[in-house]
Specification:
With about 450 residues, this protein is an alpha/beta fold. The protein has 4 domains: about 5-130, Response regulator (Rossmann fold); about 145-310, P-loop containing nucleotide triphosphate hydrolases (Rossmann fold), CATH 3.40.50; about 310-385, Helicase, Ruva Protein, domain 3 (Orthogonal Bundle); about 405-450, Arc Repressor Mutant, subunit A (Orthogonal Bundle). The protein has helices spanning about 10-25, 35-45, 60-70, 85-95, 105-130, 145-155, 175-180, 200-210, 225-230, 245-255, 285-290, 295-300, 315-335, 340-350, 355-370, 375-385, 405-425, 430-435, 440-450, and strands spanning about 5-10, 30, 50-55, 75-80, 100, 165, 190-195, 235-240, 260, 270, 275-280, 305, 335-340, 375. The strands form 4 sheets. The chain has a 5-stranded parallel sheet, sandwiched between helices. The chain has a 5-stranded parallel sheet with strand order 7-8-11-6-12. Strand 3, helix 3 and strand 4 (about 75-80) form a beta-alpha-beta unit. Helix 14 (about 340-350) runs parallel beside helix 16 (about 375-385). The structure holds adenosine-5'-triphosphate. It comes from Desulfobulbus propionicus (strain ATCC 33891 / DSM 2032 / VKM B-1956 / 1pr3). Keywords: ATP-binding, Nucleotide-binding, Phosphoprotein, Transcription, Transcription regulation, Two-component regulatory system. Pfam families: AAA_lid_14 (PF25601), HTH_8 (PF02954), Response_reg (PF00072), Sigma54_activat (PF00158).
Amino acid sequence: MPDTILIIDDEAAIRESLAGILVDEGFVPLTAASAEEGLQVLDEKNISLILLDIWMPGMDGLEALRLIKQRFSLPVIMISGHGTIETAVQATRNGAFDFIEKPLSYDKTILSIKKGLQLAQLERDNQLLRENGPAVAHLIGNSPLMAHLRQQIERVAPTDAWVLIRGGHGTGKELVAQTIHRHSLRSKHPMVAVNCAAIPEELIESELFGHVKGAFTGATENKKGKFDQANGSTLFLDEIGDMSQKSQAKVLRILQEQKFERVGGSRTIEVDVRVLAATNKNLEEEIEQGHFRADLFYRLNVVPLVVPDLAERREDIPLLVAEFVKQFSHKGIGWRHFSADALDMLQRHHWPGNVRELRNLVERLVIMTPGEEIGAEDVALFLGNVPLHPPPAQPVDPMYRHLSFKDARRRFETDYLSAKIEENDGNISKTAEQIGMERSHLHKKVKALGIAVK
Ligand SMILES: Nc1ncnc2c1ncn2[C@@H]1O[C@H](COP(=O)(O)OP(=O)(O)OP(=O)(O)O)[C@@H](O)[C@H]1O
């Protein structure tokens, strides 16, 4: 989408010639004949950069620059016919990005505009990276379900299709969205994420679409929404099932026309945004109950992705544990290692909170276990009394398969006691003590079973 550049200059000839140059270079020019008019345009339009004359009747360029910088973070290039070093220094101090002199050189002006736009984009990206936290993790897991999901991601990522990601809490829906974005043509800008469930219903619209000053109590300034921030990039709408009907209607319109209006505003804003949406709600049920728009659901669900519950891909648990141990060790905790029994126990847990629950548990264990090895006892301590997924039933040992219960028991007792007595070199007292049995009782058993003692 082309950048819109605002030219504020009282000389009509300058405005016209600059506008012509800008059109030739693929920008959209807007013009204002005074600082006051320029400030008005800024309130109403989505401007990427300003060319601002210094000497104008009424409010001069330096004062306008001060007001603009207070309210917007936009690159401003000052232009002047009577440039002096002092005014240039003053303008830079007030936050001007560059200073060019009349008569304007075509090349210099375009170069300065391009640099200013690049810098603004870098600043926006940095801001988003700061807001969205550290670098994105990789999707771990080799189970057939994860391999299938990865294939689907690879197929859909480079297209511009909107995607609905479904799955339980903490299964990794946001990570899937990040992975799609990272493999998309929009990946040079950060993805913008919004958790619709975390924002009070009355503020969702303003958060997503922005608002104009005075739209509601507390709206003291014009504010850009997440759709503006994500222009040219990807917007991740988490918990889309929690969005109000009004917001759903607006999102549907963006999907169809890439247009929306700010809260309280009448101007239509065009954006180029790809939306990835996620939900753990049953949207079909929400539609039936009249809470979710069927048309939005069908438009979003063109490429449905389902992130499986962790309990459906237990084979991924050892890999995930290894990855999380690595992440936490980097935080200065030191290396830990999970014993085979501990991993087995983790694989039998039912994980209602999915990967997030596993990650939190590994973090707690890594911090709280003093030794290097984390054993099944440590895991049991932290998992508490939560019922474990029962281990799959083992087939009956062929040795007992055709015996009655009584004979199988006799066979087991004979084998077990013979082995234990041999281990203790035929010493009945030592054996009884080791296996927790009365000595006299063991004697009777040995006799009854006909075990030969050396
Ligand atoms: N396959 C995976 N590989 C590595 N880490 C994962 C994986 N899946 C999830 N995680 C991690 O688990 C945590 C939860 O994942 P995420 O936030 O993506 O889940 P979600 O489904 O969006 O959760 P919610 O439903 O609560 O919004 C994050 O720290 C994420 O990095």
